[in-house]
Fold each of these.
Amino acid sequence: MTLALHGKSRQRRTWLLMAALVAIVLGISGSLMLNREGTRADSATITFDAYALGNINGQDGWSKTGPFDVEVVADGGEALRVSERRHERFIW
């Protein structure tokens, strides 16, 4: 036995489905907007004027591990230079 929806009951069902769809879309949109605000990264400005030139390791909690080229340099004021160059030790 099948029931056919006619007249007002079919219109009501269509109306409820459309209202539910709009509610879902608005809910997802609102959720995305709220999450976007919460995912901003913290930022800080660091000046290296009080740092000694050369290796950053051990200065004010900084640590440098590995062979990468990272040091405090004088470039119109102290700055942290980071490059892809590696310092590798060769044993001859």
Amino acid sequence: MDARCSHGSDATLVQCSDTGRPGHLGFLLAGAAMYTAWALLFEETRGRAVLPVGRIGPARATSSDLAGQLRDIERQAGVRRTL
């Protein structure tokens, strides 16, 4: 049994204390995800950057014609050779 665990009065009751670090990391990651989601939502709806997300420049434009988009699709990840 872990050194941080203690037995209660009943043999089946065991109480363990945790350091709490995994919980803090989860809250930090959730906060970062929510901030990023809100920043990208505001940018999409207002048409300009409202909250900084660390982008360096504008996104690259894709080719406008379908042939240009499908040119190298057989070598893209997730595309099977045959079904």
